[in-house]
Q: What sequence folds into this?
């Protein structure tokens, strides 16, 4: 039987990326009529029993000519592989993919993982003129290419309102939690209580950045630890900006109750999941920012799946989910009340008799496989 060759492609995400490989790739490989290929940034090739072919073809500094030359590597790869379906995870591969589509004919799906326009215009990562020009250029490319894209996958429900170019050609596939094969987590929680003795380990996991609240997390554990030395903090993840890393190192120096894993090196997702499994409280101190306030971070689903009590920045969009699952409570990370936080953490039971099935990737996998079965196989 001739199989449909499908390529998952991203420029900056590694070939072992949690969304491209662990979620989309492994799910799609369950279709017997599809041959799955993944191309992306150079990284360790995952060990898997699934029939997936990896192409770690990109390896360049983030801001360099290599990023432009990578486009030609991508073109060379797709003309060699001749995929019938391409799912791209970044706007940077849109034009090259459409060139191939025009010459060879294929189905093209854009997996929208970020609202690049909103991120660039609202986050002060680059100089004002650079971010304004870059944002308008990206939105122009997305708008002009949209009519030629067969379908859009959306990582966030909020993109339905935020992205006018998708029209009605979309499927929401949220970054819900997919446990590693050796993890078997209950679909229903019987309740979680903070231990009455021993350390209470707070967890900040994932991207280490100012916008995601790393400094607020450190200030919070400082305040809690002064009242009760039981409170500690684990920081695990990677900082894209070296300047932020230097500030973090300075702030946690001579503080034995704060541990750092990763920082200037990438951390395997399995290590982050292990840290979640051994923590007592998860932190989501994200700033109330236009590019973040309507997004549901992957770590939120990870914390929920592990029945980990959560302290989240006050945000009505997130509070609904926290309340629904009895998962924790909201605080003002900019002006926390450490005494009240300790009392609420230590006196409450979280996740009491709560159905957790809606936070797992299974629900998204079902939607994905139904769509692909009906449209490409």
A:
């Amino acid at each position: 039987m001739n199989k449909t060759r499908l390529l998952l492609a991203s420029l900056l995400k590694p070939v072992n990326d949690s969304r491209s490989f662990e979620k989309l790739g492994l799910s799609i490989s369950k279709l017997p009529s599809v041959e799955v290929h993944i191309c992306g940034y150079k990284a360790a090739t995952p060990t898997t029993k699934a029939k997936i072919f990896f192409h770690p073809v990109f390896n360049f500094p983030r801001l360099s000519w290599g990023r432009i030359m990578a486009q030609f590597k991508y073109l060379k790869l797709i003309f060699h592989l001749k995929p019938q379906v391409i799912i791209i995870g970044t706007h940077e591969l849109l034009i090259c993919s459409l060139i191939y589509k025009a010459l060879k004919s294929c189905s093209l799906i854009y997996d929208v993982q970020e609202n690049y326009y909103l991120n660039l215009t609202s986050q002060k990562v680059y100089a004002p003129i650079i971010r304004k020009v870059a944002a308008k250029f990206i939105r122009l490319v997305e708008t002009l290419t949209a009519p030629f894209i067969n379908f859009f996958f959306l990582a966030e429900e909020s993109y339905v309102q935020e992205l006018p170019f998708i029209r009605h050609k979309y499927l929401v596939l949220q970054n819900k939690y997919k446990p590693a094969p050796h993890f078997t987590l209950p679909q229903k929680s019987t309740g979680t209580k903070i231990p009455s003795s021993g350390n209470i380990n707070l967890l900040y996991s994932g991207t280490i950045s100012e916008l995601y609240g790393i400094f607020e997390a450190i200030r919070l554990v400082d305040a809690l630890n002064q009242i009760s030395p039981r409170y500690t903090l684990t920081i695990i993840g990677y900082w894209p900006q070296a300047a932020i890393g230097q500030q973090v190192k300075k702030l946690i120096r001579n503080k034995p109750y704060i541990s750092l894993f990763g920082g200037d090196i990438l951390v395997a997702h399995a290590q982050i999941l292990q840290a979640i499994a051994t923590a007592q409280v998860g932190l989501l101190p994200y700033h109330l920012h236009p590019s973040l306030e309507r997004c549901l971070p992957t770590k939120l689903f990870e914390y929920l799946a592990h029945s980990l009590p959560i302290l989240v920045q006050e945000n009505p969009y997130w509070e609904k989910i926290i309340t629904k699952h009895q998962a924790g409570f909201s605080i003002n990370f900019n002006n926390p009340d450490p005494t009240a936080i300790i009392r609420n953490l230590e006196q409450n039971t979280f996740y009491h008799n709560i159905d957790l099935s809606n936070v797992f990737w299974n629900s998204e996998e079902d939607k994905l496989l139904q769509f692909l079965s009906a449209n490409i196989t």
User: Anything to note?
Assistant: The longest strand covers residues 4-14. The chain has a mean pLDDT of 90. The two ends are 12 Å apart (CA to CA).
